[in-house]
Every structure is written in C-alpha cells, then in structure tokens.
Amino acid sequence: xxxxxxxxxxxxxxxxxxxxxxxxxxxxxxxxxxxxxxxxxxxxxxxxxxxxxxxxxxxxxxxxxxxxxxxxxxxxxxxxxxxxxxxxxxxxxxxxxxxxxxxxxxxxxxxxxxxxxxxxxxxxxxxxxxxxxxxxxxxxxxxxxxxxxxxxxxxxxxxxxxxxxxxxxxxxxxxxxxxxxxxxxxxxxxxxxxxxxxxxxxxxxxxxxxxxxxxxxxxxxxxxxxxxxxxxxxxxxxxxxxxxxxxxxxxxxxxxxxxxxxxxxxxxxxxxxxxxxxxxxxxxxxxxxxxxxxxxxxxxxxxxxxxxxxxxxxxxxxxxxxxxxxxxxxxxxxxxxxxxxxxxxxxxxxxxxxxxxxxxxxxxxxxxxxxxxxxxxxxxxxxxxxxxxxxxxxxxxxxxxxxxxxxxxxxxxxxxxxxxxxxxxxxxxxxxxxxxxxxxxxxxxxxxxxxxxxxxxxxxxxxxxxxxxxxxxxxxxxxxxxxxxxxxxxxxxx
Amino acid sequence: xxxxxxxxxxxxxxxxxxxxxxxxxxxxxxxxxxxxxxxxxxxxxxxxxxxxxxxxxxxxxxxxxxxxxxxxxxxxxxxxxxxxxxxxxxxxxxxxxxxxxxxxxxxxxxxxxxxxxxxxxxxxxxxxxxxxxxxxxxxxxxxxxxxxxxxxxxxxxxxxxxxxxxxxxxxxxxxxxxxxxxxxxxxxxxxxxxxxxxxxxxxxxxxxxxxxxxxxxxxxxxxxxxxxxxxxxxxxxxxxxxxxxxxxxxxxxxxxxxxxxxxxxxxxxxxxxxxxxxxxxxxxxxxxxxxxxxxxxxxxxxxxxxxxxxxxxxxxxxxxxxxxxxxxxxxxxxxxxxxxxxxxxxxxxxxxxxxxxxxxxxxxxxxxxxxxxxxxxxxxxxxxxxxxxxxxxxxxxxxxxxxxxxxxxxxxxxxxxxxxxxxxxxxxxxxxxxxxxxxxxxxxxxxxxxxxxxxxxxxxxxxxxxxxxxxx
Lengths: 494, 472
Prior knowledge:
The complex is a heterodimer.
Chain A: H1 15-32, H2 36-64, E1 69-71, E2 76-78, H3 80-103, H4 111-130, H5 134-152, H6 159-190, H7 195-201, H8 207-225, H9 233-240, H10 243-268, H11 273-296, H12 301-322, H13 325-356, H14 362-365, H15 368-371, H16 373-387, H17 393-408, H18 411-436, H19 456-474, H20 476-487
Antiparallel strand pairs in A: 1-2
Chain B: H1 2-18, H2 26-48, E1 57-65, E2 70-76, H3 78-101, H4 106-125, H5 129-138, H6 140-150, H7 155-184, H8 189-192, H9 198-211, H10 221-227, H11 230-255, H12 257-284, H13 288-308, H14 312-343, H15 359-372, H16 379-392, H17 396-421, H18 438-456, H19 459-462
Antiparallel strand pairs in B: 1-2
Helix pairs in contact in B: 1-2, 1-4, 2-3, 2-4, 3-4, 3-11, 3-14, 3-18, 4-5, 4-6, 4-11, 5-7, 6-7, 7-9, 7-10, 9-11, 10-11, 10-13, 11-13, 11-14, 12-13, 12-17, 13-14, 13-16, 13-17, 14-15, 14-16, 14-18, 15-17, 15-18, 16-17, 16-18
C-alpha cells in the first residue's frame, strides 16, 4: 500500500453523479420507513428532484468550464461534452420518472427500489460519458448496465419482464466481456489505459494487438448502442421490459453509449481513424438496413419502436463515423429530439397499454387519434418526426447527420440514410394511419374497465417531449452553438 | 408581409384545431373567414407590388442556424406572387366547398386544409433551400391525413403510394440541397450560385418530377386523385403540383444551366410521352375523376415542356398555364364532386343527360371545359400557344407533339362534357337531382370568372412576371 497515493478528487466534477446516487440512497432507505401510500409519491418526487438537480449541476459546470481537464487522476474528464451529455441523461431521467409515475401505481412494493435503480442507472451513465480511461469506461458501463438489467426484470411476476431481464443480462454481459477483452488487448499493446496515453503510445504499440483490441471495444460498445448486427437483445428486451424502463433505456442508453463511443474513438484512437470510421460506417449501414426492414413486419408497437431504435442507432452512428467536428455537432443535436421523441412515444404506448390492459398492437391503436386527440397529435408528431419531417427537430438532426457525411465526401452514406428513411416511412406512417384511418366501427377496442384515471404526470411528460421536439427545431441555432462548444474539446482526426 | 401570408393560414389552422367547438358550423365559418382574410391579404400584396422592379420584394430574413448558413428568408418574386394568388384562391374555394359539404370532424379537416395552404405559400416564398425543403415536406403531412381519413374506399393504398413516392423523390432532393449548400457555404437561393454538378441537378429534378408528376413518375397520381375528397383533389392537382413546376422554374433551371443543356432532351422526351400518354388515358378513362386526373398529368407535362424550352416565351407560357391549369383542374374537381354528390358515382357509363333542367351546372361545366380544351381566345390557348412557340425554337418536332396533344385535349374534354351533360339520361342520375346550389356556384364561379378574365387579358400575368429571367 505504500506506493498508493490518493488522488485529489474534484467533487464538483462528480456533482451530477453524487446527486443521483444520494437520491438513490434516500429512495432506498427512507421509503422503508414511510407508510405504503406515501412511498410512490415520495420516491417519485425525490427522483424527479434529483434528476433536475443533476441536470442543474451539469449545466452550472457547463457554464463554468471553458477548457477540459482530466480529474481524479485523469480517470474522468471534466469538460463540456460530458456535461452536455449529463444534461441529456438527466432530462431523459426526468421524463422517465413522469412516465413511471402512473405505472408505479401497481408496483408499490418495489417502488423504492425502482426509483433508486433508475437514479443509479442515470448516475452510471453520467459517469460513463465522462470516463477517460478504459477502466472507468468499463466501470461506468457495468454500473448502468447492472441497474438496467434489474429494472428490466423488476416486475418479477410477469414472465416477459423476467425474460427481458435475463436476456439483457446474458447478452449484455457478453458485450461487456468483449469490451473488457478488447481493453486488455489495448492495454497489452500500449501498456496504458488513459485515452490520451493510448493515443500517444499508439505509434510504438504492437499493431495487431492494438487493432484487435479496438475492434473488440467497438463491438462491445455497439452492443450497448443496439447497433446491428449486435442488436439481437433489443427487440425482446424493449418489448418485455416495463414500458417506462424501455422509454428510459431507449433514450438515455443511446445518449451514453454514443457519446462515450465518440469520446473514446476520437481521443484514444485518432491514429486508427481510417479503420474505425469505415467500420462504423459499415455498422451504421447494417443497422439502417436491418432495423428498418425488420420493423416493416412488426405488429407489436413496442417491438416496432425497438427496431426503429436500431435504425436510429444507424443514423446516429453516421455522424460518429465521419469523425469530424461537424459530425460531433450533428450527433449531439440529433440526440436532443431523438431522446424526447423516443420517451414520448413509449410514454404514449404506456398510456394506451394501461387503458387496454394488454400489450399494444396496431389494432390497439385504432381510433386512438380521435378518442384522445392530444395523445394522437403527439404520437403523429413523433412518428412523422422519426421519419424526419418538419416540424420535429429530428428533421434537422438528419439534415446535419447527412451534411456531415456529404461534407466528408461520403455522399454514399447519406444516400444509404435516405433510402433507409424511405423504407421507414411505411411503418411510421402506418402507425399514424392505424390511429386515424380505420373507421372506429371496424376495430372497436373497448378500454378495459373503463377510462383509466387521469395521469397528469404522464400528460405533462408527453407535453414536455412535444415541446422539446418542436423547440429543438425552432431554436436550432442556439442548440447547435451549445453542441459546437461541447465538441470543441475533442480533437477530431480529420 | 410575406411572413404574414404564411402565418395567417398556419396560425388559423391552430386556432381552428384548438378551439373547443360546440357548434358544428363553427369551424367551417372560422376556416372560411381565415381563408378569405388570406385572400384579401394577397390582394393587398398585389396592390403594393412593384412589377417594374424584377427583384425580391417583401423580404424577411432571420438567421436560423449560422454554422451552415441556414436562414429563414422569405420574399416574393413576380412569378411567385401569381402562384401564391392561385394558392389562396383555390384554397379558399376548397375550404368553402368542404364547409358547405359538411365533412365529418370539420375542425380537423378544415384546419388541415388551412395548414396545407400555409405550407404551399411557404414553398412559393421561401428563399433558402432548407426552408424550401421544410415547407415542401410540410405539404405532405396534411395531404397524407386528408386522403387517409376522409378519402374513398381505396384510401389506404393511395396514401401509402403517395407518401412513399413523394418522399423518395424529395429525400433525393435533400441530399442535393445538402451538397449544394455545403459547397456554397450558404443555403440562400441568392448565394448558392450557379453550379455544374449533374448529380445535384438530378436530385432536385427527382423531387419535382415525382410531385408534378413527370411521366413515368406518376404512379401515385390516379389513386390519389380518385380517392381524395374532391376539394382535396382540387388543391392537390391545382396547387400542390404547381409547387413542382415552381421548383423547376425557381431552382433547378436557373441554378444548373450546365446540366440543363445535357438533360433537356431526355426530359423533353419524357414530358412529350407523358403529354400524349396522359391525353390518351384521359380519353379512355371510365370515370369523371379519371379524365381530370390524366388530363392533369398531360397538362403538367406540357408545362414542363414549356419550362424546358428555357426562353422567355416558353417560360411565360408555362407560368400562365400553371395558373390556368390550377384554376381549371380545381374547378373541374369541384364540379366532379358536385356530380358525384348527386349521382353517387363518377362512372361515365352511368351518367349522362344532366344538362336538361340543370342550366347552371351545364353552363359552368361547359365554360370550364371550353377553356380547358384551349379554344382560341381562352386563357389556356394563350398559355399553350406561348409554350409551343417557345419550344419551337428548340426543335419543331416538340411543337408538333404539343399540337397533337391539343387536339387530344379537345377530344377528352368534349367526351367528358358529352358523357356527363348530354346523351341519354344515365341510370345513376336521379330525376330529382338538383342544379348547382348557390353555395356551390359561389365557390366554383370565382375560379371560372378569373379564368374568363385571364382569357381576355392573359398579359396580366405574362407581362407582369419573370422580369428576372426575361433575358434568358
């Protein structure tokens, strides 16, 4: 122990994670001493406040940090990229709490654990996006993954939920193992684990081990981003997991995995940029093809949205693959409307599921647009937005992603994205069609046990998602400036 | 002023949607009022427009996001002013007709029509490529819902075909826009500059060819025109298809003169085929809507021929014909709707003899039809003459094809008139079917009156447009 020196710890840089973890502890411990009826509102409020707190902490750090520094012995990076991603994650968490509130009505025995795990997953992701060596990268990944494994299986009496948890655990661990394996190779080749050190030592490294390690790390991260062909867990897990958990996963995990991937590749492997850019472009194309084609034949809406999220992993990988600052901006901007729309769409699925008391299929959507005009309009906005039609911010996200590809000279990649978008119209427009076009007499789905109780938290969340979706379109200028600030800390290879 | 032209219908749409209506006539009244306010606004713009100045007028420019040079820039050129006028007039007629017919869920229906109007006005006024694209795509959403919810029995297939076709074209345009904007460092029309890239030109051409539609990209057209409610078909064929011709006129032709010379002949060949093919199918179509739909195809291809003549006569003629055809096809679709309401069918074999005892219907339909078949002295004659005169300079063969098509136009229009109005009384025509009601007349007549006015004075448009391109 004599050689060990405790590093100075920059507590401020860890503030978002600490707030979330503190909230998790409060939920776990205090909820035990509360009467049953109080636990759900109490834990929800704590979770809500902590996500807001984490977001505010990250925003304050963002405002203050004009340069990026490595803190805690360079294990994590304190810069605007991490802080912006933490704001996104906190926002996703905030929305997820809103979707969870009504659902948790039937889960009151586990409500403390549920919110604690949600907060802890958020903390893990916040840590992951700041990671700046291979060890913290793996730690962060496992931290949020383990929280999510349990969250997926949290309704233990529902078999699909258990199945989802188990499947995610096995496949996810496999992915983590590959990532760790790759990290070991990179360490073996360079003898260091810090991102910057790896980049510096790349020239003297054993090239075979180094590239093999990079490839394995890419595969491991692709599992988390649910990019094809490493997506096999996604449809089953998204379908089986409780819908609020799916909503959170689909948004926050994507933010964390993709931002973490971009940071790792750009800072640690600039010397191999020629390899990983083309590798990611290929993964993006496979994801676009697979996700969109498989989505065409789905009847279950959650499954359909799962394939849609695979295809969006493809769209989101395009800007990383081009490896330019424009791409970095495109990624960060794209994530804003994408996260909001994803949570909003799953939130509407959750609302309809509660109303019908069964899994949601196309038939279950029939007439939704006329029965619940607000939900119908919001869902139409999200579906048209996923296609990339204005006035959803995702339109500009796709525009930026394609621009980044064209700017690098990869017009073919933009055209692949365009073709994928054309395919996707069929099923996204199909969802809107199912809500409005069927005459209500054709498919009369009676709500089980009458109208469900008013769920103001869910309505507010969906309204929030709509505001973010349209707001990011109108206020694209300022948001892109923020994204530019955030990626200015990375030195892109080209 | 231009922004107001865009925002009045879109804001009006929100107003109609969000008001909790108790009275079933309320939304229609409000929507019609908004459409008329928009029309008045356009008349005001027209009065203040300076035609001697060929530059952009009533311009507004606000930076949207700076790092790629995208801005919200709108303004009016002389020819876009006329197309905006066509839009507001046809939209007002369509909204009035929809209000009178009394569609289910009127607030949603008429709100969507207003939103569509705003989007089309946006297309005609946007001066930034990305903004143009935003409005272009914004047209699609209301049309999808309008056809899908209120359309005929085959509406589901029609909507899917329509959306997939048009999006496939317009996404290629998006790639072209990105490539053009990135290479210029700005997306403003005025700064994109002339460019020689064939691929960018083809990207734009793909979107416009599908939307117009240029033969053979018209696969979506018959279904969409047949399954739409008549007033939606009126807007779709009268106005939305003009957005494509406008795209050629304002973007593809002026910015890509180099590609134009290479691609003129192939596109003229396609347009000529489309002209003859559409005319023949219109002559053989078994139903009223089929005749109008295929005649629209033919007319749009004729307009494209005029545009690709790329001289003052051809472009003037194309612009005049865009306005003419917009008014004619809108009036014809509304008349088709009126016939279908009375007989519950559009099959020509079941119709006939409707002129007897229904003088107003007969007068309006024959007047519109006679203008449509380009009788000398009519507005359409002026337009087609200018187009043929323009294309003659590119080669007399093209003009021959165009002249043949005018003969075919006479054949299909006269067949339509005779099958509906004359001959023996059709089995689907009830004796008690009424003449055009005053409300229907008040909706359709303004379109016909404007057509008659243009017949007397086609120079109202041709002498007051395209100053910018006059020398081209």
